[in-house]
Model the fold of this input.
Amino acid sequence: MISKSDISRDACQLYGGQASLGYDWWWHSFTGTSEKTGEKRGFFMEFFVCNPALGGSAPVLGQAPDNKAQGKRPSYLMVKFGCWGNNARQMHRFFGWDQVKMDWGVPFSVEAGDCFLTETESRGTVSVSREEAARPEMMCDPGTVSWDLKIDKKIPYNVGYGAGKLFRTIQAFQMFWHAEGMKTEYSGEVILDGEKYVITPEECFGYADKNWGKDFTSPWVWLSSCDLISEKTGKRLYNSVFDIGGGCPKIGPVALKRKLLSAFYYEGRCFEFNFSKFWTFTKTKFDCRETDTHIIWHVEQKTLRNRMVTDITCEKKDMLLIKYEAPNGKKLHNRLWNGGNGKGTVSLYRGKKLVDKVYLYSAGCEYGEYCEEA
Done:
């Protein structure tokens, strides 16, 4: 069942070999409203842990020139906070593992300094000066932000046995995915450069997932939204959300070319397109491309019974090139476009019959392939 909750997958997975060559992150994105101007703004927050077994009193930043020259693997907790739209940016705060309090059980918790995250709440601060942001190892932009949020995960996307206990234990995939809150309600506040934004459950259009493994995927594709309006009725779909992710998953050294996992929870009905469930005969075709002004996604998926066609665009001026280094210290994703203001349509079919054409807004969207740093 795609909507089956499993918070054991949200626990930190960096044991065994992944403890010294692995990453695990918890991602959250949502919309807030400026208390001063009424402007809507998309935000994202991430707690990213890397190579805990190599940790010490200070964070080891893999892109620092000395560390890069010596081939040192990174090791830290990175707290990332950012925004989309005008002056889109990402801000990073790093902690050494001796500074991190991690509850590895279920439910998980991560704490360092005044930064804190569990299944149900998060708070913290990140402040980056222009001088700090200019250092290549920081991989971020300047700015100051604080937040205090309650988190209520409403609808999960459980990808099934592919991220189940057996596959997690043997670390079968290079990159795992679980979306415990593909529809999540947030409440609280964000203060960005002194401006307060109010986050409410009704208007946040929130999302929460996690990824972990030993390396990233290329190409990298992610699309999701719960800001949906039905063409059939003209009404907002309050109990619906879709989620698409993947690219080129690897089982050990074997690459599975151009594979995506997808789910559409449509007003209580579950539609899934999951290549790992071979008995559904899932087929996927997708095209992602970049123009001078936009990133464009087209995804077609079908099983023996269902079909979904997704078309999304996002303006590059509202996006950013999100930055990560892999646990081995390499930084290969240098054009990984990330946004939260995507819009478009999803058409859902049962057999040849159109279930609904849905107009979507506030879409989380991502696309990138490995390339040399400019």
About this structure: The longest strand covers residues 175-192. The two ends are 44 Å apart (CA to CA). The chain has a mean pLDDT of 94. The helical segments are 65-70, 130-133, 165-169.
